[in-house]
Amino acid sequence: MPNQITQGQRYLDSELRDKLAGEYVLGTQTPRVRRRLEQLIDSDPTWWEHIESWHSHLAGLNPATELFRDSEELAAPPKRVWQQIEASTFNIKKSPQGFKWWWLPTAMTLSLLIGLLIQPVLIPVSTIPDSANVRPVSYLAMMSSESHPNHFALVAYQGDKPGESNIQIQFNLGLQTLPMAEAAVWMKDKTTGELKFIDSLANIQKVRFMSPTEWKALKNSSELLVTMNENPNSRILYRGECVELSQGEVL
User: Fold this and answer.
1) Which residues cross the membrane (predicted)?
2) Does the residue 39 lie in any domain?
3) pLDDT in the model for residue 6
């Protein structure tokens, strides 16, 4: 019998991940597919790299800026395109006897006025897809030990205001119990190599908010480490490179 690819292995394909991440950010997935992908994201934080890539790509596309471009830079469409638009818009056919063409501008004005009046009723308050409200991960560290690569992830989210940024744990599926009791989390300064204490691993599991000073230190860190206790010289249990995924000015 041919070898069957497990469901987990299937989602390791980079092209498939990029496709699903793009659909997720654009909000074009069905509710069932979206829920399934969110389960995968929760169990495997590396999905955020693909999602952040799409966020960055779409952030550079702003249709509103096209309004300020010189019309000479834009290619003029063929005449037949305008003819088709006019025929579709005004339903141009042989005019029935007695039709008054002078009534057309008035009718269009009334239609526009009615549309503006009923718009607040028909259109929801927020038309932005849920995927656009997803807060991307700002910093990611895939934590590995000597025997368990990418065992779990420490992810940091940048808040809208100073003091709202936070760091937390995201577990992989099948994760064994972590040594929460006395384990401590540290940031390693990329310039000096100095270790700066963040908090216990147990507190970070519950979502640990960071002060502006701590967030600045995180931004200047080369890696995150988990040691046996709050002694920086104690045995290192896990370590991972601190990777910046998105940028912002709010601390």
Assistant:
1) 101-123
2) yes
3) 54
